[in-house]
Design brief:
The protein is of the alpha/beta class. It has helices spanning 29-42, 56-68, 85-94, 111-118, 122-137, 155-167, 184-197, 217-226, 248-257, 259-262, 284-295, 316-324, 352-361, 368-384, 390-401, 446-458, 502-534, and strands at residues 10-13, 46-50, 76-82, 101-108, 142-148, 172-177, 205-210, 231-234, 409-418, 421-430, 436-442, 463-471, 480-488, 491-499. Helix 16 (446-458) packs parallel to helix 17.
């Protein structure tokens, strides 16, 4: 396999592994499975489903994704593993149901990591890398190797480690800029150096992984493509540790819009119209929305490709040009990423089968129970709104299928407020035992009063660190999506809800976040009891 003659870019999505490491973005197993199914529809080549050894939850997620999404005609399913036998064995076990399994093992190669983190010599790490790639190869044919912090590693030593990993059976060598340190020209030069100085590099695909600490991740990856990289490791909406990862949608659309520029670097003619990736770009916007909703990580309005302002024009000069010819100020059509204003041809008299059919067209695969819950919400919405759009439908369906532990259940919200009234809220919740708990509170505004009343009922100390309301569509009857993030100790929990009544949505989003927090505390208590019993 000669990477220099591989004329397509593989998209390796690590939203479910590196993306989930973003504070507050923790996902439940079923939420991961929902995203994995959408990533398969999007057309990614490899899904890094998790870090199987990290926790029982991660193991289960990798296993379920391998079984449900890792079909013969689906993407490769990958699990991360440190260059440690127990990690690799756990990854192999979790990946067994996948038709195309991949183990991605890694070890640091920079001197700063060797000295302070691993406390090992270069010779020791070289031996471990070769041995653990061979061990992974004994379980699966497809092994990927990453020298962590490659960007700050001594080039000559890096070449040695990569040569040894390929010789041991690695089919992909991934070059990570773990701390987002490099500039594009430096990153391109590093990839070129690997191609020129690793003797057996033609036996593996060169991959790149990078973080966006300096805002340069996407630019670095595009330079890497020009110098021989053929796999890009990225996340939806660019989420991930610290400033995040390289953004999948930005990379894919850069390669799509500037195809004629990149074609020659993949040994194609400039005029070639063959896509450079396998991504179905019309699934991009939907995937972005799903990940944002399920992780609670909002997309900034000016975010390239998927931000609310990405296709908005306010300047008079721009608007004039757009009216005359859209190409004067737009380099891509919004429809290319699946952003449309299509109206849902359903109303309050529409039946369940028509509703299910439309959901299938939009790419949702729901259980009968989820269909029933979403259908009730749709009927309620159809009574309130004259026009129901596909975006409205996506919002209520995403809201209904979120896998939030239903420990406390919101039963009633009543608010009294106004210019001459002290905002007062009354809430009624059902606790995990089914008991009704009612309380009231005043606040600086209606939402503050609601949250204070809920806190009196739930009584779990926390700090609200983010509150956001976004309109799904235009108009006074639009659905409002509320996303909140709250902090407990050093951990962050998110909640999301959608409703035409933003006070109700705010209350439900808060209860969702508190349920995640409460469930986490319960699990910790169970583990502590189990540990004491075992001892």
């Amino acid at each position: 396999m000669n990477a220099s003659h591989f004329d397509r870019i593989l998209i390796f999505d690590t939203t479910l592994r590196d993306g989930e490491q973003c504070p507050g973005a923790t996902l439940h197993v079923d939420e991961k499975l929902t995203i994995a199914r959408q990533l398969a529809r999007l057309g990614v080549d490899i899904i890094e489903a998790g870090f199987a050894f990290a926790s029982p939850g991660d193991f289960e997620a990798v296993q379920k994704i391998a079984q449900a999404v890792g079909t013969p005609d689906g993407p490769t399913i990958c699990s991360l593993a440190r260059a440690i036998p127990a990690d690799i064995k756990a990854a192999a076990e979790a990946l067994k149901p996948a038709a195309k399994p991949r183990i991605h093992t890694f070890i640091s190669t920079s001197d700063i990591h060797l000295e302070y983190q691993l406390k090992k010599t270069r010779a020791e790490v070289l031996a471990i890398a070769q041995e653990m790639v061979a061990y992974a190869k004994s379980f699966v044919d497809d092994v990927e190797f990453s020298p962590m912090d490659a960007a700050r590693s001594d080039p000559e030593y890096l070449y040695q480690v990569l040569e040894a990993a390929i010789a041991a059976g690695a089919k992909t060598i991934n070059i990570p800029d773990t701390v987002g340190y490099m500039t594009p020209s430096e990153f391109g030069a590093m990839i070129r150096g690997i191609k020129e100085n690793v003797p057996n590099v033609d036996q593996a695909i060169i991959s790149v992984h990078g973080h966006n600490d300096l805002g340069l991740a996407v630019a670095c990856f595009l330079e890497a493509v020009k110098n021989g990289a053929r796999q890009l490791e990225c996340t939806i909406n660019g989420i991930g540790e610290r400033a995040g990862n390289a953004s999948l949608e930005e990379l894919v659309m850069a390669l799509h819009v500037r195809r004629s520029y990149f074609n020659p670097y993949l040994d194609r003619s400039v005029e070639s119209e063959t896509p450079l990736t396998n991504i179905n770009t019309q699934e991009i916007y939907k995937t972005s929305r799903m990940v944002s909703n399920l992780t609670g990580m909002l997309v900034q309005p000016n975010k390239a490709i998927v931000g609310a302002n990405a296709f908005a024009h306010e300047s008079g000069i721009h608007q004039d040009g757009m009216l005359k010819n859209r190409q004067t100020y737009e380099i891509m059509d919004a429809k290319t990423i699946g952003l449309t204003d299509t109206l849902l041809v359903l109303g309050k008299h529409s039946g369940r089968n028509a509703f299910r059919s439309r959901l299938n067209e939009l790419g949702f695969e729901l259980t009968d129970q989820e269909i029933n819950k979403a259908f009730v919400r749709f009927k309620e919405l159809a009574d309130k709104k004259k026009e129901v759009t596909d975006r409205d439908l996506e919002s209520i369906v995403n809201d209904e299928v979120q896998q939030v532990p239903e420990l406390f259940r919101l039963d009633l919200v009543q608010v009294s407020c106004g210019s001459s009234t002290c905002p007062t809220a009354t809430v009624r919740l059902l606790n995990p035992d089914g008991e009704e708990l009612t309380d009231a509170a005043t606040g600086t505004g209606p939402v503050d009063a609601v949250y204070k009343a809920i806190n009196r009922v739930v009584n779990v100390p926390n700090q609200l660190i983010e509150f956001s309301v976004q309109s799904v569509t235009a108009g006074i009857d639009a659905i409002g999506e509320v996303t909140i993030r709250l902090k407990y100790g050093d951990r962050i929990y998110s909640g999301h809800s959608a409703n035409t009544d933003i006070i109700v949505a705010s209350a439900q989003a808060y209860v969702n976040a508190l349920n995640r927090l409460y469930a986490s505390l319960q699990n910790e208590n169970k583990q502590a009891v189990a540990s004491q019993t075992a001892n």
